[in-house]
């Protein structure tokens, strides 16, 4: 089966050649493998991860669609679970000196993973069906985060354009319309995005102790309530003393866009916590509704209709 191919082997090249291929929003090749669109380097790391990773009961796994607030979620979960080891007023707090992606590694970007401390925290953009059995069967927890698809598309578009233009200023991109149509077709990295959202949504209903389902907009709307929800879910509940002392509010402010994006480490254009990506690129505006500044209302409505159709009957609204 495809899952048994060794990443370093000739077989891997054969596998690649056998897969349907398209161009990503960045105009680089992506392959359709077991239901997701993925690039060559992530496919290699993903196969190594699927074959070797052993989950532990205490692991916490953060799953997101790309550009839906992964950086924010990583910083919140790291700060909440490490609050007895590192106080946020400490000028050497790991999040002051390291970009959140340097503390909570992605499964499918680099293998083996370089995580920091306990409990082990990992992140992924992979669909649930692609996770190894040990994650599914042990007691580890999954926090899932998605975002309104209009803003997700627009955030992705800005991200890939900034990244690739810096690496190669003469780089040719597909037009905005082409990129948008392809996103609606489901051909985007780790997409179709609705497949991933639906898998974790269903699971969060069937196994609420396993999967906590969050939305970027809800974090924006009431970060204190969402921090409490996350902490309870991870068995890191805040005590009433902590609540009265304002610990949750302090953590929310510490992980806010304003605070994190102004830290020297996150303004860096030469430091890469994820290969090729400047730390600064993970922070753009951090707002709801910025789609208005890039796509037309008719594009937005087309996307809404598609999403409504895909999510029909699930009880989920985005
Ligand atoms: P915008 O491009 O809309 O500004 P990811 O972390 O999954 O790559 O998502 C990146 C998006 O999350 C970007 O959205 C980025 O600005 C936003 N973001 C990053 N850190 C954030 C924070 N602490 N609070 C809110 N949004 C944040």
UniProtKB/TrEMBL annotation:
Pfam families: Sulfotransfer_1. Gene3D superfamilies: P-loop containing nucleotide triphosphate hydrolases (3.40.50.300). It is an enzyme of class 2 (transferase). It comes from the Eukaryota. Keywords: Transferase. The keyword Nucleotide-binding does not apply. The keyword Transferase applies. GO terms for molecular function: sulfotransferase activity. Residues 57-315 form the Sulfotransferase domain. Its EC number is 2.8.2.-. Belongs to the sulfotransferase 1 family. PANTHER family: SULFOTRANSFERASE SULT (PTHR11783). This is Sulfotransferase.
């Amino acid at each position: 089966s495809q899952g048994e191919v060794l990443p370093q082997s000739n077989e891997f090249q054969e596998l690649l050649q056998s897969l349907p291929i398209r161009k990503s929003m960045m105009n680089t090749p992506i392959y359709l493998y077991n239901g997701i669109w993925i690039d060559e380097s992530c496919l290699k790391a993903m196969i190594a991860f699927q074959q070797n990773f052993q989950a532990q009961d205490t692991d916490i796994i953060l799953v997101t669609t790309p550009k839906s607030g992964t950086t924010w979620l990583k910083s919140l979960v790291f700060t909440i679970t490490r609050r007895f080891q590192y106080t946020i007023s400490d000028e050497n707090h790991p999040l002051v000196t390291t970009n959140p992606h340097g503390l909570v590694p992605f499964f499918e970007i680099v293998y083996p993973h370089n995580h920091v401390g306990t409990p082990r925290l990992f992140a992924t953009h992979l669909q649930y069906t692609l996770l190894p059995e040990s994650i599914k069967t042990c007691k580890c927890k999954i926090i899932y985060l998605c975002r309104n698809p209009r803003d997700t598309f627009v955030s992705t578009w800005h991200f890939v354009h900034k990244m690739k233009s810096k690496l190669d200023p003469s780089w040719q991109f597909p037009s905005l319309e082409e990129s948008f149509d392809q996103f609606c077709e489901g051909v985007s990295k780790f997409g179709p995005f609705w497949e991933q959202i639906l898998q974790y949504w269903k699971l969060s209903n069937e196994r609420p102790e396993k999967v906590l389902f969050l939305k970027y907009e809800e974090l924006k709307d009431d970060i204190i309530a969402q921090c409490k929800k996350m902490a309870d879910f991870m068995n890191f509940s805040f005590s009433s003393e902590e609540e009265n002392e304002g610990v949750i509010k302090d953590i929310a402010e510490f992980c806010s866009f304003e605070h994190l994006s102004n830290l020297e480490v996150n303004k860096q254009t030469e430091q890469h916590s994820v290969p090729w990506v400047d730390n600064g690129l993970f922070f753009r505006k951090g707002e709801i509704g910025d789609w208005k500044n890039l796509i037309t209302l008719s594009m937005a409505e087309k996307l809404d209709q598609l999403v409504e159709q895909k999510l029909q009957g699930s009880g989920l609204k985005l």
